[in-house]
Amino acid sequence: VAVIVSSTSSAVAARLLSKGEEPRVSKLASCSAPQNGTATCTAFDLVGTNLWDPTLRASRMEVADTLGDCCQGCDELPDCQAWMFESVARRCLWIRFLDEPCREDPGQLSCRCVAHYGTTFGFKPVSGLIWVQRQ
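RESULT FIELD:
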């Protein structure tokens, strides 16, 4: 039975690839990489500032007052590479980096710096490997 399943899987994969269809690549969510007590100390612009919620009379970034709302909001924005959430002020920032290496890979250790315990930094990983600095 395993041989039949394996053969069938191989045939399906070969057929898909022969049609010129590219395999689906899933993007990793920024919610998978939060690090408490961390911020970014590199140059960035805010993204999503023009997204307005007329019922609340505030921007979507201002309304994102939980860590989950902040990281999910970043994931919904193509230009958002990272986010910072300040838990005491309940403030969210959606970030697009201006300089290398952060612009190319926001997960680089040089894109992060130590902050107070209430600040959490997260980013959209460009690979399945997330580097964490030793304490």
